[in-house]
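Let's practice the habit of predicting before peeking. Look at the sequence and jot down your guess about where helices and strands might fall. Then scroll down.
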Amino acid sequence: MSFSFAHPLLGPDSPIGEADQALIAGLMIEEENPPQSSRRWTAAGARLALDHLPGQIAEIFGGDGPMLDPALRRTFRKAYLVGTGAALAAAQGLRPLFEEMLAGTSCEPIDSTDFSYYARQAISADCLVIVFAAVEEPWRSLEATLAARALGAFTLVLTASDHARYDQYGQFIWRMAPPVDPIAAPSLLLAMAYRLGLALGQLNGVAASRLAQLRAALDAIPRQLGSALITTDADSAFACEVQAAEHIVVAGNGAARAAAAANAHWIGAAIGRPVSLCGLEALGDIPSSPSVATLAIVPNGLSVRRAQLVLERRQGDGPMALVVADNSPLRAIDASAIFLLPAMIERLSTLVYLSVGQRIAVALLERRQP
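Done guessing? Here is the structure:
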């Protein structure tokens, strides 16, 4: 019995129009016949992208920020934070910020394909959809954008790519040039999202004192990031231990889940092996073993106590590195490496707390590409 894939957005029952269906059909052909590319991750490309990153973040935070439609000054039933791959990793760390800036509206991070195919029955004109698109081919994110628009949702698109196709869709588009290397893409998307979040907060009546506090925190991030991206001997030492480990686990909760997801992706790409991603609770359920290398990302906040309970029970593991605030009680835990970063407002910490995984990924690439 043969299987035939019926695209849920194509056909007479589709919520989208014929022109947009034709676009999706064309994108499917592109996906089936991808261009031959010789591009691969390189240590030099990743290092160059990270060297440029603090300056790019400063540019995003400078100026007046995005000019939003006054129609966004309203209550939405639900908001969806949509992305694929690195963009989804960024979206996963934004829920706390956007729920605050949207006056308590529930926000759900969701994969682009899951949104387009399975969530559309729940989408209507009282929903807000924010699509995050990184440097991947635009197929999945465009599909989600078309579906959101057709279903009547107010649709915003943030993209760090050179695909102009996004410009004709959504009520608001903020597009930046792509980074030199994909390793910087989630950082750029997070910076754009932070600015967008504060603009939404201003529209929705968030207290001026709170917005001023968050804005001051944003202004400090380029400097904090510049310091956090400085390489150390501990980067290459832990990279060596990671490469020798049989199993690699990256863990984080809350806003740090985005940093953990991106770090797992980069480390896996650098060593050419799968890397497990989990929350702190799931980490506690994994049997201790000397063959497991662990990277736990725990900025100050509600996750600190949970991390204490879990990490103190994992002394039978192999190499373990912690990414924590410089005033965190987790500094006292016996670990192979402790990477200290500034204490920050937790919901704005992901962009800086990504940096250690970026450094470790570069160190791994340098070991493979001397």
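How did you do? The longest strand covers residues 127-133.
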